Amino acid sequence: MSAARFDDWDLPSSGGAAAPALAAQTTASAASPAPGTAGASLAAVNAADKRIVNGKTDINQLAPFKYPWAWEFFLKANRNHWTPLEIGMAQDVHDYSHKLSDAERHVFSNVLAYLTTSDIMAMRNIGLAVMEKMSAPELQIYQARQVYEEALHTWTYQHCIESIGLDQQEIYNRYRVVPEIHGKIRLASERLNRVLRSDIDLTNRDNLHEFALSYFFFAVIFEGCWFYNGFTPIFALQRRGLMKGTAEQLQYIMRDEVLHCAFGIRVVRELLKEENLTLDPAALRTLWDEAEAAETAYAGYILREPILGYNADLHVQQFRFIANRRARQVGVEEPFPGVEGALPWLDEQANLRKEKNFFETRVTEYQTGGALAWD
Q1: Can you list the domains of the chain with their CATH numbers?
Q2: What's the confidence (pLDDT) of residue 31?
Q3: CA dist list (Å): 199 to 115, 187, 195, 272
Q4: Beta bridge partners of 367
Q5: Confidence of residue 33 (pLDDT cuts 50, 70, 90)
Q6: At what angle do helices 168-177 and 102-124 cross, to 10 degrees?
């Protein structure tokens, strides 16, 4: 099997056609055998008949693959196994109490307050709303790993909150009582709950479009823009040598989230092509406008006082820049044409490939075509 690429989001989709060897299998319909019939059998599965949704093949039969790239995502994710306990938090405890300004503590605690709720939402959405509707098992298996990773991320935020000694009840309630945090959570809930029910009929074209739009919101905006942009205030502190333990935790999380986003974008592209479906431009425009308004309000709250090297305007500009990147990767119109990146340091800051003291931290990076190496 050829290795799947994870840096090719801007390239046209290769489509979902099965490889010739897969298509060579034959398919026959078979009625269910009568109860107690000896030697009863079912028809062989033709992998070419698999689909993203509404597939007619056996969901329990993993291979041959129609979507080998999904299996590669699963293998890639399993090479990045970590837990929050492996990263030291002692410096963060000292920094939070003795080095951060009041404005920086406000930013730090509210970013954690938002992320704790968001990752639980992501876990529930994949596990309850999306995974069961995917009718190819290779897609479901990666999403099962994704559910685990969202739970791991939630543990990570909790570990940071606990290590620093923040008031857990107060932090976890902020998404309910702070309007600007609640606005993002409410918008996500409204968009994702539309397809949460298990009885939605995806053979109906209107329902299928609603599902595709909801999954676009989840993969492209919720994970691809809000999460990606959401870690940035902590990375801004890390650049100044502050809260380095939390920032390293978020670097591991971001590495997971980049895979989540890349997988989701690939699924959206394949689904639209497979179903001959076009996302309604007006509906997309509404999605982007709602997301931008929620992100702008959130940035205005967490950065009501600018911190050194970072402010609300930079945060919103970077959201727009990332939104354009995600739109290009899916193959839809850029929502904010002409916006330039506000944080040229972000991609490097978010990347774990950098020199580290072996005696201070665990050092890992993705290796092309191989397992993680330990430097």
Answers
A1: 92-349 (1.10.620.20)
A2: 47
A3: 30, 23, 9, 21
A4: 370
A5: low
A6: 70
